[in-house]
UniProtKB/TrEMBL annotation:
Matches recorded under Pfam families: Orn_Arg_deC_N (PF02784)
BP terms from Gene Ontology: putrescine biosynthetic process from arginine, via ornithine
GO cellular component: cytoplasm
Family according to the record: Belongs to the Orn/Lys/Arg decarboxylase class-II family.
Reaction equation(s) it catalyzes: L-ornithine + H(+) = putrescine + CO2
Lineage, highest ranks first: Bacteria, Pseudomonadati, Pseudomonadota, Gammaproteobacteria, Cellvibrionales
Protein's UniProt name: ornithine decarboxylase
Length: 394
């Protein structure tokens, strides 16, 4: 992919034939909506499996819970990382067995644990004493893995540190206690932060995991069986990352260094990297204005905004490539959504270069928007309906 020079070149993001298919479909619909190209997800899944041929894939359903996506991944043999009983019902309703499910949310009610257990789920994440005790009571005999804190927040575009995970010492205590409570101390998980640009973050996290594996074996005689390396793999946005093959090569090397005598079971929980690049959010320019006759930049208001699916523009964290068919001279613009809320501004510090001949009614194509858009969309803010989604191509 080329360095961003202000003009978004669609061929940096999609095969020409794929974008033509998305565009042809989009031309027949009223904006705003997301089009998901299913064959692109199929290819991303196959690439991931080929790059990490020793790992089991658990798709993080939160990235995009569309039934067509879940069904596609189900048929390809994926497992599923589930965050709530609602996701569980949806995925099991599509014919996925409980053995293919991990309850990956460390924040849950005792009643939720009971519900998962009753439906046959046996694999649970935890990071606290109270949650562990609840799991022992509501899901006796379950396999538990403990999530550790990671330190990738400076280099992840969408960090997940602080809220989830515990320190190494506590992870050792929890896994030891799990055994005493009649649970199976199964492994350790981490998430280095979503859209993690620094591959070394996995190295630092694996070093912690290795210490936990060794201490439990030496001090308690407990042999852990699994490492869950989470998600964090990249999608193609404006800020460049290495490609997935480079991530896989490096991470595999870190594993070989730390677990030279053989890998335990390895789980990956990708969301963004599998789905984002398959989606295009199509919006329309509602209004273009300047705040004074001499203002140096325009405000471009579109019919989609922070509350309509673009919440990851919070703090301008994720910078989506935006494509327009207008090709006039560029000028930086503020990009904002349609609601009566001043938080509904996507990019203000980063003045988005847009053509001067752009006008109301023109379409803007937000590329790489398949993940974390529809599932974040508000249900009725200012009366706007949730972001529509169409899955095509299979
Ligand atoms: C537990 C867990 N696993 C996996 C993921 C997916 O991460 P990503 O979309 O970066 O691949 C998330 C994202 O929030 C998560 O919370």
């Amino acid at each position: 992919m080329n360095q961003f020079n202000g003009v978004t070149d669609v061929t940096d993001y999609y095969q020409a034939e794929t974008f033509a298919r998305i565009k042809a479909f989009a031309d027949t619909r009223e904006t705003p909506f997301v089009v998901i190209d299913l064959p692109t997800i199929g290819r991303a899944y196959d690439d991931l499996v080929a790059s990490f041929d020793y790992a089991d894939i658990y798709y993080a359903v939160k990235a995009n819970p569309a039934p067509a996506i879940i069904s596609l991944l189900r048929d390809r043999g994926a497992n599923f990382d589930i965050a709530s009983r609602y996701e569980l019902d949806k995925v099991m309703g599509l014919g996925v067995d409980a053995e293919r499910i991990s309850y990956g949310n460390t924040i849950k009610k005792a009643a939720d644990i009971r519900y998962f257990h009753e439906r046959g789920v046996r694999l649970f994440a935890t990071d606290s004493e109270d949650d562990l005790v609840n799991i022992a009571r509501e899901a006796p005999g379950a396999q538990v893995y403990v999530r550790v804190l990671t330190d990738g927040s400076q280099t992840a575009d969408w960090p997940l540190s602080r809220k989830f995970g515990c320190e190494t010492e506590m992870a050792v205590e929890l896994l030891t206690h799990a055994q005493a409570l009649g649970l199976e101390p199964y492994g350790v998980s981490f998430h280095v932060g979503s859209q993690q640009r620094e591959i070394g973050s996995w190295d630092a996290a694996l070093a912690k995991v290795k210490v936990i594996f060794e201490r439990l074996q030496q001090e308690q005689g407990i042999v852990l069986k699994m490492i869950n390396m989470g998600g964090g793999f990249p999608a193609n946005y404006i800020s460049r990352t290495n490609d997935l093959a480079t991530y896989a090569e490096e991470i595999t090397r870190f594993l070989q260094e730390d677990f030279a005598e053989g890998f335990p079971r390895i789980i990956l929980e990708p969301g963004r990297s599998l789905i984002a690049n398959a989606g295009v959010l199509v919006s329309e320019v509602v209004l273009i204005s300047r705040k004074s006759r001499t203002a140096l930049h325009r405000w471009v208001f579109t019919d989609v905004g922070k509350f309509g699916g673009l919440i990851e523009t919070l703090d301008e964290s994720i910078k989506y490539p935006v494509y327009t068919e207008k090709s006039g001279e560029l000028e930086g613009a503020v990009l904002a959504g349609p609601t009566c809320d001043s938080a509904d501004i996507m990019y203000e510090n980063f003045k988005y270069p847009l053509p001067l001949d752009l006008s109301a009614g023109d379409r803007l194509y937000w590329l790489s928007t398949g993940a974390y858009t529809t599932s974040y969309s508000a249900v009725e803010f200012n009366g706007f309906p949730p972001l529509a989604e169409y899955c095509i191509g299979e």
